[in-house]
Amino acid sequence: RITPGQVTVITIDDQNATWYNFTRFKDAEKGCHISGMSELKKYFQRFGYLSIPNNQKDNFTDVFDAQFESAVILYQQKFGLPVTGKLDSETISTIMSPRCGVSDTESTIHAMKH
Amino acid sequence: FAYFYGRPRWDRGSSMTLTYAFSPTDMIDYISLPEIKTVFKRSFSRWASVIPVNFTEIDDYPSANIKIGFFKGDHGDGQPFDGVLGVLAHAFSPENGRFHLDEDETWAIDFEKVKSKKAIDLESVATHEIGHILGLAHSSIKEAVMYPSLKPRSKKVNLKLDDVEGVQALYGSNPNFKYSSLLAYENSYNK
Q: Hey, of A14, A47, A102, which one would you mutate to test binding to chain B, going by the most B CBs within 10 A of its CB?
């Protein structure tokens, strides 16, 4: 008689956390069209990586366009990530991490000690 | 390290003292006020140990230079909080002094006592936001206190060389500060 094995259920309780939905954009790259990507663009706008282009008026599109690719590259540079221009797993994981609400690039000047 | 545009800083003369106060109404109740005050005192002390600036707690919230409070959602400064995780806190550049923490987070000062996977270390966030209050923007150095993100259940409270050089370029060095002690600490940490 085969006895049933013990099943361990691991509950991930981050599913109602802010930005959890961004996991669905993992592996997206230029040319992709994914419903809801405009929300991710708003995130990038909020933290100073992206501005709304004139041809998109008040809203972002759901297209991973060249401007968004530039924003992703800028973000990857700022966070010391491999610069791929794609929403690879490390980039998405960093985007979803809890963070400070202060913009990363807008109204800032960078300095280095020489 | 980086600064806000125009490199704003507090300017209160040669021997600078900045006062801070906690909101009499907008606080959390699951960590006692004395414990919160102890955490913030330590956080302010870290910055005070490297620059010639003193921080003194006062009771009079409206007149304090730095005003600390916990707020939920839209709290009237144009930067609404967003619920659990996401944005944890924000603070304004000099000489504004507003220091806001998201009330919806599970704030913790001891991860042994708080088991939530979403617990956020209050002292780490406090130390980071004080950097903004003083005029530092976000750093690209992952180990720096001024790096923008912080994982739940993690701590980052010790100033790194990047943080120290940035803030000392704004305010000068505390006469008692020794780079050797910071470097010794960083070397031991790296090992």
A: A102
Q: What angle do CA A101, A106, A107 make, to 5 degrees?
A: 110
Measure the CA–CA gap between A92 and A70, rounded to whole angstroms.
16
Lowest mean pLDDT segment, chosen from A9-18, B1-10, B65-74: A9-18
When pLDDT is cut at 50, 70 and 90, the band that residue A111 belongs to is low
Cβ within 8 Å, pair A16-B5? no
Which DSSP state fits B104?
A: T
Residue B163 in this model has a pLDDT that exceeds 60: yes
pLDDT for res A114:
44
Contacts of B91 (CB under 8 A, 6+ apart): A102, B98, B99, B100, B129, B130, B132, B133
**pLDDT on residue A16:** 58
Q: Please tell me the distance from the alpha carbon of residue B72 to that of residue B54, in angstroms, as a whole number.
A: 30
Chain A window 35-74: which residues touch B at a Cβ cutoff of 8 Å?
47
The answer to whether A33 faces chain B, any CB pair under 8 Å, is: no
